[in-house]
């Protein structure tokens, strides 16, 4: 099986490439950075991506799109950039598949951000999307494009709605923010009340989930939640950091919610578990591993 990872230099893409190569897949990688050492690597123009050249040359059996912007705050400041990277490029990829390799299966990495603030938990794929950020809207539009290409051109697609992914290599978002503040600040100040919740999934579990989807998804334009189905509060996460750092630092919550941030998340992962997925790394173990890595950066 020949696999193409677009966005292979990013957080998820790089871990996925390493994982699939360890499984002896025939992996091709693609990103905007230049790499003179890797074989089966394609550099793409960040400003005017030509996916036709890639798909006509590689002709993959499966393409996993790990590319795009991944920042809610940045999407509020630069919505056009976010739209181009998360929505327009997905259309360009699928159009290139339609023309050059219509048998290719396409997995698009979407986001739980499409749900916004769900009315109930756990969040099911059948819930009506209600994004609260440009990032969420653009990810939702990319899902619709995947469904469009399945419905009208019989291109095999699915979209993975990833919840809060974390792990070694991630130098942004909550865990990185906590690491930096625990190592530099006298008082650790965080947004919100601390009662907000997330459904965290370690990167090692995430790449296994993607592998499950490669082999077992229907590829009928469907949406699949990717999380662990475990709800944990931001305060609990901060407490884990306090325990592992063994520092008597005060953690305070300022009561302000950042624009685009949801309040509570927990995924219904029935579809994913039916494909054979089981998580291996619980959140406390994962945070301990993350802190060990972060201290080396």
From TrEMBL:
<dbReference type="InterPro" id="IPR001509">
    <property type="entry name" value="Epimerase_deHydtase"/>
</dbReference>
<dbReference type="Pfam" id="PF01370">
    <property type="entry name" value="Epimerase"/>
</dbReference>
<comment type="similarity">
    <text>Belongs to the NAD(P)-dependent epimerase/dehydratase family.</text>
</comment>
<dbReference type="InterPro" id="IPR036291">
    <property type="entry name" value="NAD(P)-bd_dom_sf"/>
</dbReference>
<feature type="domain" description="NAD-dependent epimerase/dehydratase">
    <location>
        <begin position="4"/>
        <end position="227"/>
    </location>
</feature>
<protein>
    <submittedName>
        <fullName>NAD-dependent epimerase/dehydratase family protein</fullName>
    </submittedName>
</protein>
């Amino acid at each position: 099986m020949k696999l193409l990872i677009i966005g292979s230099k990013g957080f998820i893409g790089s871990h996925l490439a390493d994982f699939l190569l360890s499984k002896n897949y025939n992996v091709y990688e693609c990103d905007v950075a230049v790499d003179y050492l890797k074989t089966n690597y394609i550099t793409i123009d960040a400003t005017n991506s030509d996916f036709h050249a890639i798909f006509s040359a590689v002709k993959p059996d499966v393409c996993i799109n790990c590319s795009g912007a991944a920042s809610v705050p940045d999407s509020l400041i630069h919505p056009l950039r976010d739209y181009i990277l998360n929505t327009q490029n997905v259309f360009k990829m699928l159009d290139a598949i339609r023309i050059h390799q219509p048998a290719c299966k396409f997995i698009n990495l979407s986001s739980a951000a499409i749900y916004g603030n769900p009315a109930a938990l756990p969040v099911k794929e059948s819930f009506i999307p209600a994004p609260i950020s440009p990032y969420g809207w653009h990810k939702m539009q990319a899902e619709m494009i995947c469904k469009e290409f399945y419905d009208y051109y019989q291109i095999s697609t699915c979209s993975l709605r990833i919840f809060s992914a974390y792990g070694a290599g991630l130098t942004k978002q909550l865990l990185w923010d906590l690491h930096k503040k625990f190592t530099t600040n006298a008082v650790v100040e965080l947004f919100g009340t601390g009662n907000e919740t997330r459904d965290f999934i370690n990167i090692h579990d995430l790449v296994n989930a993607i592998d499950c989807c490669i082999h077992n998804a229907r590829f009928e334009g469907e949406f699949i939640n990717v999380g662990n189905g475990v709800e944990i509060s931001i305060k609990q996460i901060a407490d884990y950091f306090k325990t592992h750092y063994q520092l008597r630092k005060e953690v305070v919550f300022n009561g302000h919610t950042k624009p685009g941030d949801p309040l509570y998340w927990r995924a219904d992962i029935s579809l994913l578990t039916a494909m054979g997925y089981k998580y291996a790394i619980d959140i406390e173990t994962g945070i301990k591993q993350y802190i060990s890595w972060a201290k080396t950066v």
